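stuck on this:

***
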Amino acid sequence: MGGIVSDSRNHTSPPVPDPHGATRAEAAPRAANRSERRLLFPEGPAVDPAGSHHERRIRSFRPRRGRVTAGQGEALRRLWPTRGLDIDGRSTLDLDTLFGGLPVVLEIGFGMGEATARMAADDPGTGILAADVHTPGQGNLLALAEREGLTNIRVANGDAIILLREMIEPGALAGLRVFFPDPWPKKRHHKRRLIQPEFVTLAADRLRSGALFHCATDWEPYAEQMLEVLTACPELENTVSGGGYAPRPAFRPVTKFENAGLGKGHRVHDVLFRRR
């Protein structure tokens, strides 16, 4: 879903070559798709909001292309200027202004946005900054928010690590949610997983005291990694007495994706920690 493996905030780590290099034959249609997207949504989400002024690193998300429906496209055209933002890494966000003073939870990777809209409706006193790179999902969430009259959602387009590292101040977030990120199941791809020590350290720094760091996955080995990495972070403490996985909190809806995993016999684990 959203995010990448981060280096430190002072940018001292050496750049990592981009693993998504393409041949000329592959690059041509990609460039055409990017141009078409910009023509369709001239005031909407940028194709590459951070551009080349940030280093290239191994990413934990894969490009997710899909056809934008008429309703999603209309929502992007009309609502992006007021309810969307591009993660360009050039300025610090004023979360109080964006959300009218509400405490703000960052959700990384929201898919088509149904669960995000449900959580926003159930908790109107909390702002949700929802970050993803999937254009149809961005449009769908904006349309859902408008239809349900939800004013506590903003949609962020781009790399969630740049958002955390460059655009959110330390201690600014009331919570962080990472639900069903890409498990990258092959061993050689484990380095692409979002929940790594570097990411957790960065995320913990952006959480205020008492804020919840909540992960969920239906991939058992990734759940074990999540639990191990969060447990090792000294700024975080497990909400479960004695350690281990947490029961699914009532505020996290069961999604279509989760039901599909359960139907395949997968066990879903929630990992729920609190900032000290």
